[in-house]
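## retry 2 of 3
previous attempt timed out at serialization; input unchanged, resubmitting
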Amino acid sequence: MATYKKKGHKPSNKEEQAKKVEDESTTAEVFNTLDEGANKTEAFVAENQKYIYVIVGLAAVVILGYLGWQRFVQEPKELEAANEMFQSQQYFDAALAGSGAQSDSLYNMALNGGEGKYGFLDIIDEYSSTNAANLANYYAGFAYLNSNRYQEAIEYLEDFKSDDEILAPLAKGGIGDAFMQLDQPEEALSYYDEAASMRSNGFTAPRFLLKAALTAIELGKGEQAVKYLNRIKDEFSDAPEASQVPAYLGRAQAMK
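## retry succeeded, writing output
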């Protein structure tokens, strides 16, 4: 049975006395070490107090400076850029709804401005550090794509950076569309594959899986096309693209 030592218990033999002395010695050593560490820290602070104050002061200046810049410079600039881009977005939307020469003219106005307002290209140049300028890259890319200016479309869509559930894969897939129009299906397939893999939503994923499948078939890559088509069938059976899978699946399987 275990024995319980009462508070104030005195050692009853030499062995216990030796153990007590050893414990007390160890405890004292620990406290001495802590005291030495504390003394060294105090000495370091005392010797370097001036430099520490300078470092803390600089950190405070940087933080306050950033907060001030964000509040009084960046936020007003973001608002101004968004307001300036409104007219260009109107031109872009009207171009999407139109056709032919009218659409081309509207896309040009969206890109270069009209009625004294900035176009997307102006927003990108004048407000380069803003979210509006980043979004202008997206619009400019698709304005060029829909105007059959594919190299420019690739350039601006590549510059668009986003984690958005829809816009990010649409931009990547738009680059694929541009490469297809440039008769570079290998490059297009790479971008379609990336666009399909970026998000698993029911809008962009099946859209680019189908484009990837059709491009793979064109390139004679039947096995790869089957994988894309089966993903649509298995994961996105409710998507409009699913109705096209049977027509292409047999063709892709025959190529394996």
